[in-house]
Design goal:
The chain contains ten helices and 26 strands. By secondary structure, it is an alpha/beta fold. The two termini are 33 Å apart.
């Protein structure tokens, strides 16, 4: 690879911002241009749903760095600038400007999905960026009820935030349970009951056919004839990867921009990272696209180094966290692929640690109230070959003690925390199963890093 002199980054979200900062951290002294459509400098998105009704959601409070910091780092920050095309090593912008580059990173993220039947009404909202907050919060401050369509993480966090502020909240979910792509069945049920215990109405298996204003209220109608009225509606049905630029540039696209393990596209000068990139996951053996804050930051940092020639494949296991009604869940891996779940602790009381496996291999972990255990389980996911599987003859059996406690070596060797240890030697079959087992507290304390500092571990001030 020849050394580039100009690197352009399209997208001012956490992936784009992290990439630009990483280039400087790695000693790149060429031109770095960070271009994005949003009028705000890079900011933290996770609080948008967690702290929806709080007035702390301002550009100044959420920004990653003071405006002067970008200039001091020699990063040309061009906000409010839409890139319309890529041609011959040049970015073409809507304002008529053209930006030549030697290497380009597409960190365009995604756009909130809308509903084809939804009313074009000022009280129907999506929540993707800071620009969506003011109108939605103003509606909520005028009182409920609030109707949330979609029971993913964003929808449930927004519902919890609004309910904590005293609003009447109803959540509608098309699937049989909330969080089907995020948690195993037993844990999904616990989250559902948490919302219901706090007075949030959650209806699952709802196929909506219409959303229209009737007699001064917004009315959502389901195929089975049920209907719900609300003053405000939040559509939280996920995002669409923003692949328009990639398509126009002739890059390979399939539910995201297809990249290799280094983050490179079919064009050797163009890379992609974050929510928009679909990359090969070494654990699952297939391409995945991950929509998480922490993942976007980690992926962008690795890809930025690869743009400088590092040649390091991306292998990190994605992880995130969510807080609802004061309960924090930490989540890692790809739990939708699990066929078994080993649980230790009290799921209903949100004091537990769990390791999910697929065909005996660890693919995900979840913990509530046990950050140290979660850190240890993440170590297992990051290095699954170091597990003490019972059929491995080359290692002594250190999984149990006579007193039923964890292995004595566990406190010194956090990587040695097999899923069998969570249930006293035998994982529960089925993703919805799991009984209280032996203690899983192993390893050293895991102290998350600073959310506003790209390239470091995430913090419970920002969701992945």
């Amino acid at each position: 690879m020849t050394t580039p002199r100009t690197i352009a980054v399209v997208g001012t979200g956490i992936a784009g911002a992290t990439a630009a900062l990483t280039l400087r951290e790695e000693g790149f002294d060429g031109r770095v241009v960070l271009v994005g459509e949003e009028p705000h400098p890079p900011y933290r998105r996770p609080p948008l749903s967690k702290d929806l009704v709080k007035r702390v959601l301002t550009p100044e409070r959420l920004r990653l760095k003071p405006p002067a910091a970008w200039q001091e780092l020699g990063i040309e920050l061009r906000t409010g600038t839409k890139v319309t095309g890529i041609a011959g090593g040049v970015l073409e912008c809507a304002d008529g400007s053209r930006l030549p580059y030697d290497r380009l990173l597409l960190a365009t993220g995604g756009r909130a999905r809308t509903l084809p039947y939804a009313a074009e009404d000022e009280h129907v909202h999506t929540l993707r960026g800071l620009g969506d907050v003011a109108a939605l919060r103003a509606d909520l401050e005028s009182g409920g009820p609030l109707l949330v369509i979609g029971a993913g993480l964003l929808g449930l966090e927004a519902a919890a935030s609004a309910r904590a502020a005293g609003l009447d909240v109803t959540v509608l979910e098309a699937g049989a349970e909330p969080l089907r792509r995020v948690l195993p069945a037993r844990l999904r049920h616990a989250v559902l009951e948490l919302h219901r215990a706090h007075g949030t109405q959650v209806h699952t298996g709802v196929t909506l056919t219409g959303l229209a204003r009737r007699d001064g209220a917004l009315v959502a109608t389901a195929r089975d004839g049920r209907s719900w009225q609300a003053h405000t509606v939040l559509v939280a049905t996920g995002l669409r990867p923003d692949v328009g630029l990639a398509v126009r540039a002739g890059l390979d696209v399939d539910d995201g921009i297809l990249v290799d393990a280094l983050g490179a596209t079919g064009d050797p000068r163009v890379f992609a990272a974050g929510d928009v990139a679909r990359y090969p996951d070494p654990l699952l053996g297939r391409r995945v696209r991950v929509e998480q804050w922490n993942h976007a930051r980690q992926h962008a940092a690795v890809v930025a180094r690869n743009m400088l020639g590092a040649g390091t494949p991306f292998t990190a296991v994605p992880w995130s966290w969510t807080e609802q009604y004061g309960v924090m869940l930490q989540i890692a891996g790809h739990l939708a692929d699990a066929d078994a779940l080993a649980v230790q602790g009290d799921v209903a009381g949100f004091d537990f640690a769990a390791l999910a496996t697929a065909a005996g291999r660890p693919v995900g972990a979840v913990a509530a109230g046990r950050p140290h255990d979660f850190r240890s389980l993440r170590t297992v996911l990051d290095d699954p070959d170091r597990l003490d599987h019972p059929d491995r003859p080359d290692r002594p059996d250190r999984r149990t003690r006579h007193d039923g406690g964890p292995p004595r070596t566990a406190a010194r060797t956090p990587a040695v925390l097999p899923h069998a240890a969570l249930t006293g030697g035998r994982p529960e079959a089925g993703g919805s199963a799991g009984a209280t087992g032996t203690a899983v507290s192993a390893g050293t304390a895991g102290t998350p890093g600073t959310a506003g500092t790209p390239g470091t571990a995430g913090s419970p001030t920002a969701k992945g």
